[in-house]
Structure formats: C-alpha cells, structure tokens
Design a protein that fits this description.
The protein is about 25% helix and about 40% strand. With about 140 residues, it is of the alpha+beta class. It has a single domain, classed as Roll (Thiol Ester Dehydrase, Chain A), CATH 3.10.129. The protein has a 5-stranded antiparallel β-sheet with strand order 1-3-4-5-2, covered by helices on one side. A hairpin with a 3-residue loop joins strand 3 and strand 4. The radius of gyration is 16 Å and the shape is elongated.
C-alpha cells in the first residue's frame, strides 16, 4: 500500500499554555488518519463492529516528537502499512508542517484486531487484508 495522506489544521484547542500542540493531540491526529485510511478503502469502523464483530485497538505506539506544531499550522499526516500480520497491522506514520515540509513527529503504531464482544485477539478478516494490500 502506498502512503496515505490526511490534512489536519491545528486549532487553538489543540495547543497547550505555551502555544504548541499538546503531545497527546499528535496521537489523535495519527488516529484520525488511520481511520480515514480505512474509510478511503470502504471500511467504516462502526460497521466493522456491527457487521463483522471486530474492532481495531492500539496495542503499542512509539512516538518521536521532533519539532513543535503551533496554532493554525496546516499539517499533513501520513500512514503507511509496514506489515500486516494475522491479527495485527503495523503502521509507520509521520506528521509534517505543510508550509515548510518540516518533519514534526514520527511514530510506529501496532494495531490489534479484536473481537468486539470479547475484546480478545482475532484474525483480520480476509476482505480487509485484501483491500488494504491492494489499495492505491
């Protein structure tokens, strides 16, 4: 799968008292991008829960904060699948400031596929793996 890109504008509510994006908000931007990636290939997470009895949950995250984003910055958040396992997906993600292409944050995020009713690990449905693998 090629890199998926999602634009994010920094709002005042995203910043801390120092005027920079609060650290947990970068994680929210990464999450939104993964959600939009799934949506772009035809999978809505609420429908996956209701129809396939699966949810995706963060199993592990490693974030490297490199430079600060500030109020009103226009960001570009990327998501690329590094590896798909039977019950997990490893994403490589980054956040850049669009105006000067400065890399602000990079992360590796491991997502686990869980049965929605038991919250136990389960295989990723074949149709999802197929669509993710062939997405352009």
């Amino acid at each position: 799968m090629k890199e998926f890109l999602w634009p994010v504008r920094v709002y005042y509510e995203d910043t801390d008292s120092g005027g920079v994006v609060y650290h947990t908000n970068y994680i929210k931007f990464l999450e939104r991008t993964r959600t939009e990636l799934l949506r772009s290939i035809g999978f809505e997470q609420d429908q996956l829960k209701d129809q396939e009895n699966i949810i995706f949950a963060v199993r592990a995250i490693n974030v490297d904060y490199l430079k600060p984003a500030r109020f009103n910055d226009q960001l570009l958040v990327s998501a690329r699948i590094k590896r798909i396992g039977p019950a997990s997906i490893l994403f490589k993600q980054s956040i850049i400031r669009e105006t000067d292409d400065t890399l602000l944050c990079q992360a590796e995020v491991k997502i686990a596929c869980l049965a929605a009713d038991s919250l136990r690990p389960c295989p990723i449905p074949e149709n999802i793996t197929r669509e993710i693998s062939h997405a352009d």
